[in-house]
Description:
By secondary structure, the protein is mainly alpha-helical. 48% of the residues lie in helices and 10% in strands.
Amino acid sequence: MGKHRKRVQEFRPEMTEQLEKALNHPLRATILARLNDSPASASQVAKETGESRNTVNYHFSVLENLGCIELVEEQAVRGTFAKIYRGITKVLLDYEDWEKLSLRTRLGISLKAFGQAFEFAQRALATGTFEKRLDRVIANHRFRLHDEGWARAVEILRRASSELEELNEEYAGNLDLPETYWFSFAILGYESPPPGETKTPP
């Protein structure tokens, strides 16, 4: 089966009913995030998550029916065919959309995203690619903002994420480049406790 590409959809600022259904189960949110990162089969995702193959197959089917993932290839594996899917829904939610999700689902999505960012950075450090290029970027900041400043900061981060996704789409369609590199980025913007505060809220 030949590969084909569909432009990745971004649901901003309004979340569709289909995306809301997809994200309202933590495993589906995990699967969608995984397939947005790179194509994979249900068997691969089951091994990575530790979930049963039947459970993962079910959630793949739900995501496909909701229009969040698509079949891109069938690979011959030991006398059968493994179906490879990719995510076609990039999740970049506004406050009103995020508010629709349960706390359990929001925590699951946040933990998955943070864990994936840490895993990518850890792997790059371990293999030496993190320090291979002198023009790599690393920055950590914490400063005080009021509501207007917070809104501006969020918009800056969202704009940066969107522009990088557009760059990814541009290069993903050009497979004839002489030499390419895997570029990883993570954008986190969140409220921090005041400096020195270590208490866990009740």
